[in-house]
Amino acid sequence: MQFITLNNGVKMPILGYGVFQIPPKDTQKCVEDALSVGYRSIDTAQAYFNESEVGAALKSSGIKREELFITTKLWINNADENKALKALDESLKKLGLDYVDLFLIHQPFNDIYAAYRAMSKLYKEGRIKAIGVSNFYPDRLVDFCLNNAITPAVNQVECHPFFARFEAQKLMQEYKVATQSWASFAEGKNDIFKNTLLMQIASKYNKSVAQVILRWLIQRNIIVIPKTTSKERMKENFAVFDFVLSEQDMQSIATLDTQKSLFINHSDPNIVKWLCEVHKDSFKS
Which residues lie below 8 Å from residue 174, measured CB to CB, with a gap of 6+? Predict the structure, then answer.
């Protein structure tokens, strides 16, 4: 496994397993399968509503805690100082852990500065090993880096060949914030797995399109957390450290970039309103 050293010295596996959109009833089995394949980094969130099932899988695995890297995220409705403190307690209880390795602000809305103060306190207490953000656009990330004592260790953003985020990553590197990709496969949009260029490159290396995409991101030092419910796909996604894409192939894949999201525009007022309301009833105090 290859690791990324975060800006506070914590080492994070560059390849992990994500559980977004996996129903709670299936999550424990999927995480158990992922751990058996060799994954040690698991990415969940309060808004995925499957932290308890992740925790059950971690417990049943028997894997030593220090070998695991567990990420969860603070949802919008918990983004204030007091709620953030309580929310971490709830997440730790569900996960069955004394600490999480990475705690992220899931969306850049509500009182994120107050929430980050709470997260910073928990970080100093050792209950979080690293803190960061998710879905922060460059302008918001710069403001956040300049106006907090602790620079976010990670920014988890949509990133795939159709939305490559080259300029955003360059800025993150300037501020020593690691880039993490969600939707590495664009959730299959634009027929990504049948893309002619990607298929040609995959054939050249005797690999799958999925493996080529992950390798392309990893060679850019981008952390990936591909999600699948198939154990065979888990194995396939994990087998990406035995080949290296040429610089020419890296550049060829870069030409697929449209510089546009395939999912969500966090600058759209209607999207902001929807995100702030989508789980409101689920996170009432």
Answer: none
Quote the pTM value: 0.96
Residue 39 among the catalytic residues = no
Location of structure tokens 């990475």: 102
d(CA 28, CA 47): 17
What pLDDT digit, counting tens, does each position of 153-201 carry?
A: 999 999 999 999 999 999 999 999 999 999 999 999 999 999 999 999 9
Handedness of CA 55, 40, 46, 115 (dihedral sign): positive
Q: Residue 135 is encoded by which pair of tokens?
A: 């879905």
Q: Which of 17, 48, 116, 123 is catalytic?
A: 48
Q: Tell me: the pLDDT tens digits for 109-124? A: 999 999 999 999 999 9
Tokens 């985020």 belong to residue: 165
Asked whether 156 and 107 are in contact (CB, 8 A), the reply is no
**Amino acid type, 124:** K
Helices (H) and strands (E) in the chain, counts: 11, 10
Yes or no: say if 61 and 32 are a contact pair by the CB < 8 Å rule: yes
Per-residue pLDDT at 284 = 61
Domains defined along the chain, listed by start: 3-283 (3.20.20.100)
